[in-house]
Please model this.
Amino acid sequence: MTYAIAEAAHRSGLSIDTLRYYERIKLIDPPARDSGGRRAYSDEDLAWLGFLTKLRTTGMPIRMMREYAKLRHQGMASAGRRKQILVEQRAEVLDRIAELNACLDVLNHKIANYEQCERDLSAKVPDLLAERTA
Model:
């Protein structure tokens, strides 16, 4: 199955400009062209775009994504380096997750504190009202 650039953009969640940019900087191979000369993206192209999107979401710099994209054309000869790139990125992701979990702990603590304040205040309101009417 092939997809025009607009459909590929929609399916990948990327903009048409981003698809063209990725092609220009060699993150993606130039897609096949249809009989009218328009880009025709394959399911394989979309799978690669999905992987690139995941790499970008992890915070991988474009420079490293370009290296990975270049290496994949070398086949199994580059498997070691590609694995190394992913292992290093995984370590960065795990560090970021740990950092976010620490932030989440702080937020949860503060929220619990405010919830306790609200409960304490709710418990005192009836006493305050009783004092005013007495």
